[in-house]
Structure formats: C-alpha cells, structure tokens
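G., the chain you wanted modeled:
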Amino acid sequence: MKEPQLLYYDLGEGITAFSTTRHGGYSAGRYGDFNINVYCGDDGKAILRNREALCQKLCIADSQLIMPHQVHQTEVALIDETFMRLPLTDRQQRLEGVDALMTQLSGVCIGVSTADCIPVLLYDASHHAVCAIHAGWRGTVARIVQKCVARMTEVYGTVPASLRAQIGPGISLDSFEVGDEVYDNFSKAGFDMQAISRQYPDHNDARQLRWHIDLPVCNQLQLEASGVPASHIAQSHICTFCEHDTFFSARRLGIQSGRIFTAIMYQPS
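Predicted structure as tokens:
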C-alpha cells in the first residue's frame, strides 16, 4: 500500500495535525497522487484507497475520519458522541453545507479540503478541543475564524488566549489577484485594507493595476482580534499557487482537480 506524504504541524502534546500533499496515493491526472475529496470529480475507487491508506497511517478506522461538504459559508458542525453514533447517510446529511468542524473526542480526525483557500487548525489544550476551518475569501469576509473561536468558547469554555493556531498552505498575496468586487467586499466588511491588500501590475497588461488580497494575514488578524496571541499562531508560508507540484491549486489545475486535506486529531499516548 502506498503511504501518503504529509506535512505535519506541532500544536501540542497528543495532537496530530497535518496537511496532505499530492504525493503517496492512487489518484491520477489533476487528482494525482493523493486526494480524498469526493466532491471534485475524482475516481471513487482511488478515493477509497487513499482514505484507507491515510487511516492506516493515522491508526484509526475510516469512520473516525470526518470531512464536510463545504460551501464557502460559516456553518460549524459539532462532532460529538451523538454524531458518531449516526448512520453514514445521516452523518453525510449533517455535514452538508458545513465549512468548519470541532470536536472534543479523542481519536476522531476532523479536517477540511482546500486548493488555494486557507485551512486553519485550532487546539484548546485545557479542554482537549480541536477545530478545523475552511476559509476561502467568502468565508474570510464573513469572519468564519472568529465565529469558530466564539463557538469553541461557548461549547467548551475555551479561553482564546490559550488557543494554539496553525494556518496551512493557501494562495499568497502575490498570487491572489482579485477583481474590484472582491476588494470591495473586504472593504465593506471593515477589514484594514492597508494591511491585507496591495496593487500589482496585471499579468497580461502591465499598464493596468490589479488588487491582491492576503488571505493568510486576513485570518491571522481575525485570530488576534478574537484574543489569540500572535505568538500562538503559526503560518505555513506555503503558497499553493506557487508550489502546485506539491499542493493542489485550483487556480493552476482548474476546479476539477484534487484537494489538500488539512486535519487535526487529539489522541493522547
């Protein structure tokens, strides 16, 4: 069996946190090698083999690997014992239209799919609670990260100042060229545009200037605004658009291509 090649993050003792790369799986073409997202057009048999390989690497059953069907909104799903007892079809229904997951269960791996969007992982060591967030530009504008911190505070009693956060691979400021309407969305939402945006010459016409948005910084600022200390926030500094040979990039490969799976699991030794 092939072994998925993972990028690991250090978020604390008993935590397994990672992003998958494109290497070490059974998918092909624009999905190669490793993809477990069932919503992007990949071959179902390849996805199952990739899931099996990942679960074996993590030493968990397939039922313990949880991934939502994301829609670029701000819905957060609580993965608790009640959810874990549901039949598979009911689980899938609960995960429809969800862009973030959180759990306090040991041995349950929760994660989100990205291919230029920003994945964010959170860990509350005091309550052994974890959260995985998908923050595309729409979710970022809607402040999904801040909503997740607030939800963890409500459900688990999380103290934001004690959270550890990891911002995973995503498109960088230099690569994320946007239209004026995207810039306007961030501006109207009250973001500090001097901190998160720059104008660069258009790739096709250097006489024209185009806006670029820094999504990793946007999400870092949201974490800080929620009370997470900057010293507790780690950035991967990996641009998926630039490093598309290692990480999937929808802007490079098209929408019908593989996805990175960024996940977190509490599993004390």
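The longest strand covers residues 118-124.

Shout if anything looks off.
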